[in-house]
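Morning, I've got a small favour to ask if you have a moment. I'm working through a protein record and want to make sense of it properly. The fold is given in discrete form, as structure tokens running alongside the sequence. Can you walk me through what the tokens say about the fold? Thanks so much in advance, here it is:
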Amino acid sequence: MSKRPSFQFYPPDWRNDPGLRLCSIAARGLWIEMMCLMHDATPYGHLTVLGRPLGPEALARLVGEGVPQVRRWLAELEANQVYSVDGEGVIFSRRMVRDEMLRDARAAGGAAGAEHGHKGAEFGKLGGNPHKKELYNQPGKLYAVQRDTGGPIKVGITKYPHQRFNGLRKKVGPIIILGTFDVADMRRSEAAVHAYFDGRREGEWIYAEWDEVRGVIMSATHPPLGTTTHPAPSSSSSSSSPSPSPISSDANASGGDAPPKPSAIDLQAAIFASGVRLLCAAGKSDAQARQLIGLWKRDHGNAAVMEALASAEAEGTPDPVSFITGKLRAPHGKRNHFDRPSGPIESRRRAREQCEVDDGAGADGLSWP
């Protein structure tokens, strides 16, 4: 039996998974019961009791339903690929098995780190990155980035954000810069954030939504200074002072080297606020919505995305993703794809894009890394 009293569960992923949505409410209810049993099973994530596979008859007794009904619901779940079956015919949750493998890898990494003894003692309890010792106890930048395909959020520190971001792009590919924060003590600010997400991170990569990560950054024990200075325009008087802002970000999501003006910061915040609300209302998860918005911003810029979002909201379209994509791709003075038939090539391209966005949400209702 598992010694863990709980497992992570993300309602948006549960409600937006296409396989589960095709199942009846009764089949979905059976699946959550099965997940609870698999959480206590050995091996973890497999539908077993006392090491023995559970068949429909035993499962029916455990959940208090009739065998015919349980067989019918299992058939629904199988037809919609909600669960998998191993070589011995045992039902298992792909996500739960994967989570267990990740936990084991993290535990092994922690044990390996302990072998370094005193070398990790100074920073081990605080968290953070011991290789950046020269940056600790100094003011600088705390940054948060995410791959443009979504997934975990990296929180780190640097004195030179643009060089750091360029280095990250070479390592992990295109990234979305979620924010850079001025902090008085880089070591303690980074360590406070990492310590909060212990058990939900792999190194500096945190498995959480951006709203939660940003809230922790802003309310951590060693919070940001809360001021990001931008040079005043040349036409400003010498007495003019830059406007403070708690967050700064690159001019566009693909990572231009020029820091934005405060108005760009406000525009970016407005884009994500209105865009996430609009797309979530249409059935996308928070992570899927943010990923789509990041891709649109990268390809078309903030102003065009904001205009397209406003148009979609004004039109009240039931399919804002297709509406916004078509509006962004429509050249000025030409009809967009709503005004002309879509050919097979265009249909396949849109299907590929949708698969990229939907990839990563598991039928377990658990967010995929």
Observations:
- The first strand starts at residue 48 and ends at 49.
